[in-house]
Amino acid sequence: MRIRITSLAIFLIAVLAFSAPCFSQVIYGPASGGKRSPEDLAAAAAAPKPSYDPHDLSGIWWGNGAGRQLGTPPPMTPWGQERYDANKPSEREAPESRKVPPALGNDPLGKCDPEGYPRNLSANGRPFEIVQTSGKIIQIFEWGHAFREIWTDGRKLPPVAELDPRWYGWAVGHWEGDTLVVESTGFDERTWLNGSGYPHSAEMKLTERYRHPDAMTLEITVTLEDPKAYTKPWVGMPQSYKLQLPKGLTILEEAFCVPSEEQSFNEKVRDAAAGLTKSK
Length: 280
Prior knowledge:
20% of the residues lie in helices and 23% in strands. The protein is an alpha+beta fold. It has one domain. Strands 2, 3, 4, 5, 6, 7, 8, 9, 10 and 11 form a ten-stranded antiparallel sheet that branches. The protein has a two-stranded parallel sheet with strand order 1-12. Strand 4 and strand 5 form a beta hairpin.
């Protein structure tokens, strides 16, 4: 018995010794634009694909920055049109007829306000992570290092009148076969739906369907209902995301929007570009 125990101890020490460099390595997922270092790309190429479980959505997912969650919007109500006209976007996805220099715009991101949802789902081509527990799923977004909770413990979504609006709303989810259905509402009206400045009300309800058709792919479809802002539901096209390898070792960058840094950037870059530099 002593020989067996000694042999087992030597085996475990050897395994830990050879495994330590792998687990001590910091491997970053794709930041804005999908950039990864040559070392990270090599690690991803050498990593084995994880075993496939259609109910396991965990990992870091990247959508390659292609496409937006919602697609073409339906007609707006007078309330929605008024809010839309008041928003002054600067992002590249905004129509040229509406785009203004950042210093002259009023995008909430210019003041480091939270990006909100579903805008953060496809923000700047950045990835997001899904963490699953027995009663809750957490989405962690690289931009702003923000998180969203999806309760999967059987609770129902309360009426919006009973909820205090939140930047990322209130969400519950349940499985229908191999599809995770997420319902959410109670969103803070100050966020935009995307970089074009489309608005929403606190009464907005999102229904999302998450499909995991193979080990490396996640598909998300978003349907938006907001009678206060839009005359009919806004049904988005399915968007595809790819799992970033090595699973469990890849991490998100800490991409916070820091108000003091944003203010300095506004003064030195955005204001100067718009001819608003203060005279000394």
